[in-house]
Amino acid sequence: MNILVKILVAIGSSASVGFGIWHFFVPGMWNWFSYIDSKATELVIAIRAINVFFSLSLVLFGLVNILLIFGDKSNRYSMIVVLAATCILWLTRLVFQLIYPQGSINTFLQFGMLSAFIIINLCYIIALIIMLSQKIAS
User: Fold this and answer.
1) 89 lies in a domain?
2) Each residue's pLDDT tens digit, 5-45
3) Does residue 138 lie within any of the structural domains?
4) What is the pLDDT of residue 21?
5) Which long-range contacts (CB under 8 A, 24 or more apart) does 66-71 make?
6) Is the residue at 32 inside a domain?
């Protein structure tokens, strides 16, 4: 496996896992539910469920990428499939940050998030392009 691919995937995946773990605590840190009518219990439950699902997805995608890239049982096809799915996930987040920026109450936070999403995307996209461009051994 190409060393650059390993480095890029390790960086992107570490950031994904970090964002995922951090996101488990975001609702409490930012007091999300104080903005919602206390009678809207289904909305609170839905937001909590979506956040847990999102956070867990980031952690799992990051860990799966790390396990595949550093494991001796993975192959080119499995890496391409998981990297492609991860690229789509992070590219979607980047597009949302461009169209509907979060953190707009603090310019540093808004552009810091945008920068992080760009860097993570580049790590995964470059690794995917390298994987796609490698010749298949006959």
Assistant:
1) yes
2) 999 999 999 999 999 999 999 999 989 999 999 899 999 99
3) no
4) 98
5) 66/9, 66/10, 66/13, 66/14, 66/17, 69/1, 69/5, 69/6, 69/9, 69/10, 69/13, 70/6, 70/10
6) yes
Q: Is the pLDDT of residue 109 over 90?
A: yes
Q: What is the 3-state secondary structure (H, E, C) of 2-60?
A: CHHHHHHHHHHHHHHHHHHHHHHHHHHHCCHHHHCCCCCHHHHHHHHHHHHHHHHHHHH
138 has a pLDDT exceeding 70: no
pLDDT for the residue 137: 63
pTM of the model: 0.91
Task: Name the residue type at position 85.
Answer: A
Instruction: Identify the domain containing residue 16 by its residue range.
Output: 3-133
Alpha carbon distance 9, 87 (integer Å) = 11
